[in-house]
Each structure stands twice: as structure tokens, then as C-alpha cells.
């Protein structure tokens, strides 16, 4: 039976958690941990619930960065696939030999992704690799070398994808020089953009500003459009703050790209597979990208797997790109089952979107520090400000909210400069969602009083 309420038996971090955090700090590279990291030491999971090493039980509104969309630990149907595959095949050099499992997954990805043209798939292990493959594919199969990416974007941390990433300076600091030829432009963030346009009131004006910025300022002054291979974008900026652009932005961007024969690269690493109520977030925007990069949720919260789906006019020539684990048989079959299961939960995401929208907008009405609420499906961002007029970021309150939520049994993750993201597993029930939303309100109340 699914458990109904969180249970905090000891204030986190408890004694066991403290010990592990201490050892972790000594032994493990700091990766993304910063002084604001939550002291959560996860031991196990059950559905939408996480248990820490001290026996605290939390409701999870993070899906471990939109990976565990089907919850914890392993969905029984995925467990069955894993066991079956362990009796058959886990790995057999998918990029050197052939196997039927990656063919089956590629066929599925081609059929469910937007666009009815011929496509191919490149398999890898992570989001950053799916983006690297997109960059290499574009340079390899077109004569163009430049890329456009958006300010606020997160596309990964290896040198190629990092050169596209423009989320936080700390992520880029000391890595200069990165890959040449990336030009950053403003993202149409309705709440916070360089022009001070209220993008909720005037979405067309905001969209026009961004399109004009690229078409005039970049293409007339910096690079000729016939040298630009691709425009990389996130349909909803994830690490940048769960920022949703105006509805018609991507159709306008697509027109611009088509005008100059520039490829559109849709980074769905954080949003794909059901998070927004559609398999791919770009489906909300009536736009067909030329390349789609995905990872995270594709592995069902069990296997690391990434994929780049692309128009087959683009392609690598033999030997031009490869890796060891791409096309991993077990990972592919887990991904295939994941797709089937996620499809079943899409109606749940659509149903719960209404609930989250209603409750989160109520929070905006009740708490002055809640500056902006935005989202789709089960992907919501709340941005905290010190003052609604000046929109000065309120990092302190955001951090307090994260900790207050944890103390009260709710796991949340920050994003952007002063935002939190709400991204529960898509298997969440209405009752569980309401429990989490109540704790969120308590956390905001405690953090802002
Ligand atoms: C939109 C997006 N692209 C790419 C990446 C990089 O993925 P990975 O961490 O698997 O390399 C991330 C990771 O958060 C992401 O959110």
C-alpha cells in the first residue's frame, strides 16, 4: 500500500546522514554540491516517497531532477524487463555489433517524436552526450560551424555542451576557452527579460524582440545566417528556472530558422517523457524540431541512457562518432518499457496540472515574496523576489523554503537564481499532490515570516 504522509523522526541531517555527508565531502568530487545543498541522504524509495538513512520519510517533488518520473524504486514492469534481459543480454557493443533491442527503441523514438520525415537515432548515456552528438552531427553534416543558444540555458557540462550552457557563471568559470562559435541570445522569459517587457501581458512583443535580436542584431552584425548550423533551445528552461516561453515563440523561431536553412535543436533532456503532459514538451508549441536530444527519464529511473533523434538527411559518416555503451541492450529495453508506461500516465499529468496551477497561483496571491509562478503539466517553477516591483531576486527566502520543506517532509530542488522547481513523479496521486502542496505552503509561510 502507498504511504500517505511524510514522517520526520529526526531533524535532517540526522546522525547517520551527518556521517555520510562528512565522508562524502572527503571522498567524492564536489560536483554540483554547493553550500546551499540540502542535507538529504537517500537510502531507499517507494513510489513517490523517499527515505533517508535516519528513517525520515519524505514526499518527493523532484523526481531526482526529472529522472524518476515513474517513481521509486523500480516500477514492477520495468523490474520484469531488467530480469528478462539479464537472462538474455545486457551489453554487447551496440556500436560495433548489431542488436535487435536498440533497433526496437530507435523505431519507437522515431515514431513518437514530432515530425513525419525520415529520422535516425544516436544512442549514448547522458544528456550532455546527446547534446555533444547534436553539435558534432551539425558540424559534420553541414558546412556550417556556428551555433546559437539562449541565455539561461543549461545543455550540459562537457566542453561542447558547456559552451552552449549559459545558466550560471560558476558552471563556466575557469573553463575558457570552450568550443568556438556559440552566440548567446536572450530567451523570451516573460517575467524577466532585458527589455522589461511583461511577456504575460504582451507575449507577441516579447517574441518579436527575441526574433528581431537574432535576425537583425546577430545576423547583420556578428555572423551571417548561412554560417549558422543550429539553434539550440530548451522548450522550457529547466536549470534556468522552469521558465515557460510564450506559446508562439517556437513557431516564430522555426520560421526564422527555415528562412535560413538553420536546424532547430530541441533539448528535451529535462522535459521529455511526460513531464509536461505530452511525451515531448515541444508538442505544446506546435513546432517540429530537426534534432531532439533526450536522456534522464528515458532510462525509467533505472538505467543511464541518452538519445539524439535527427533528420536522416543529417548523418555521421562511418567512424565519425561513436561510444562504448550506446545501444546498451538492457538500457534500450528498459527505455522501451518506460515509454509505454509514461504514455499511460499522461492523462494523470494533464489532470493534476489543473490542481497545481490553481494551488500555486493561490500561493502567489497570498505571499508577496512569490514573484512568479509558471509551468505546464507537472513542471512548475516558483520564483522568489524581495520586491514585486523591482523583482530583486530573493535567494535567502528560496533557500529557506527548500530547507523548511525538507524539515516538514517534502523534497524540492532549487533552479535559476531564486526559484524552486516542482517536478513530482508523474505517478503521483491527487491526495499525495495535495499533501505536498500543503507542506509547500507551510514552508513558504515559515520562510517568509
Ligand atoms: C536541459 C538539459 N540538457 C542537458 C543536461 C545535461 O544532462 P546530463 O546531466 O545527463 O549530462 C541537463 C541536465 O540537467 C538538462 O537539464
From TrEMBL:
**Keywords of the record:** Aminotransferase, Pyridoxal phosphate, Transferase
The cross-references to InterPro entries, in alphabetical order and at most eight, read:
Aminotrans_3, Aminotrans_3_PPA_site, Class-III_PLP-dep_AT, PyrdxlP-dep_Trfase, PyrdxlP-dep_Trfase_major, PyrdxlP-dep_Trfase_small
The record's section on CDD domains has:
OAT_like (cd00610)
Q: Which cofactor does it need?
A: pyridoxal 5'-phosphate
- Mention any Pfam family matching this sequence: Aminotran_3
Q: Please give the family membership noted in the entry.
A: Belongs to the class-III pyridoxal-phosphate-dependent aminotransferase family.
Checking PANTHER family in the record gives: AMINOTRANSFERASE CLASS III, LEUCINE_METHIONINE RACEMASE
Q: What is this protein called?
A: Acetyl ornithine aminotransferase family protein
Source organism: Ignisphaera cupida
Amino acid at each position: 500500500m502507498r504511504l500517505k504522509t511524510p514522517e520526520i523522526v529526526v531533524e535532517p541531517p540526522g546522525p547517520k546522514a551527518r556521517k555520510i555527508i562528512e565522508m562524502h565531502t572527503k571522498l567524492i568530487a564536489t560536483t554540483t554540491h554547493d553550500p546551499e545543498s540540502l542535507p538529504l541522504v537517500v537510502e531507499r524509495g517507494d513510489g513517490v516517497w523517499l527515505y533517508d538513512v535516519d528513517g525520515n520519510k519524505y514526499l518527493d517533488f523532484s523526481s531526482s531532477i526529472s529522472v524518476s518520473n515513474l517513481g521509486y524504486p523500480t516500477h514492477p514492469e520495468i523490474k520484469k524487463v531488467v530480469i528478462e534481459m539479464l537472462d538474455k543480454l545486457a551489453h554487447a557493443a551496440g556500436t560495433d555489433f548489431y542488436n535487435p533491442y536498440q533497433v526496437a527503441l530507435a523505431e519507437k523514438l522515431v515514431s513518437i517524436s514530432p515530425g513525419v520525415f525520415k529520422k535516425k537515432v544516436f544512442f549514448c548515456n547522458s544528456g550532455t552526450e546527446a547534446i555533444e552528438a547534436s553539435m558534432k552531427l551539425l558540424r559534420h553534416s553541414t558546412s556550417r560551424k556556428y551555433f546559437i543558444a539562449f541565455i539561461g540555458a543549461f545543455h550540459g557540462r562537457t566542453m561542447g555542451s558547456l559552451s552552449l550552457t549559459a545558466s550560471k557563471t560558476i558552471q563556466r568559470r575557469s573553463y575558457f576557452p570552450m568550443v568556438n562559435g556559440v552566440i548567446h541570445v536572450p530567451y523570451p522569459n516573460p517575467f524577466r527579460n532585458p527589455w522589461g517587457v511583461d511577456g504575460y501581458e504582451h507575449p507577441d512583443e516579447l517574441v518579436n524582440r527575441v526574433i528581431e535580436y537574432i535576425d537583425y542584431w546577430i545576423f547583420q552584425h556578428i555572423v551571417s545566417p548561412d554560417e549558422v548550423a543550429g539553434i539550440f533551445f530548451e522548450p522550457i528552461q529547466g536549470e534556468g528556472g522552469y521558465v515557460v516561453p510564450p506559446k508562439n515563440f517556437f513557431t516564430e523561431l522555426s520560421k526564422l530558422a527555415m528562412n535560413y536553412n538553420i536546424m532547430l535543436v530541441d533539448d528535451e533532456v529535462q522535459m521529455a517523457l511526460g513531464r509536461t503532459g505530452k511525451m515531448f514538451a515541444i508538442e505544446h508549441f506546435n513546432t517540429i524540431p530537426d534534432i531532439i536530444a533526450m536522456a534522464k527519464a528515458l532510462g525509467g529511473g533505472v538505467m543511464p541512457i541518452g538519445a539524439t533523434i535527427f533528420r536522416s538527411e543529417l548523418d555521421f559518416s562511418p567512424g565519425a562518432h561513436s561510444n562504448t555503451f550506446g545501444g546498451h541492450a538492457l538500457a534500450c529495453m528498459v527505455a522501451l518499457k518506460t515509454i509505454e508506461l509514461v504514455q499511460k500516465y499522461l492523462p494523470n499529468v494533464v489532470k493534476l496540472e489543473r490542481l497545481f496551477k490553481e494551488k500555486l497561483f493561490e500561493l502567489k496571491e497570498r505571499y508577496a515574496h512569490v514573484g512568479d509562478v509558471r509551468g505546464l503539466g507537472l513542471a512548475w517553477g516558483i520564483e522568489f523576489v524581495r520586491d514585486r516591483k523591482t523583482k530583486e531576486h530573493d535567494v535567502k527566502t528560496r533557500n529557506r523554503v527548500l530547507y523548511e520543506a525538507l524539515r516538514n517532509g517534502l523534497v524540492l530542488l532549487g533552479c535559476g537564481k531564486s526559484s524552486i522547481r516542482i517536478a513530482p513523479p508523474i505517478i503521483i496521486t491527487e491526495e499525495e499532490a495535495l499533501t505536498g502542496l500543503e507542506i509547500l505552503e507551510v514552508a513558504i509561510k515559515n520562510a517568509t515570516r
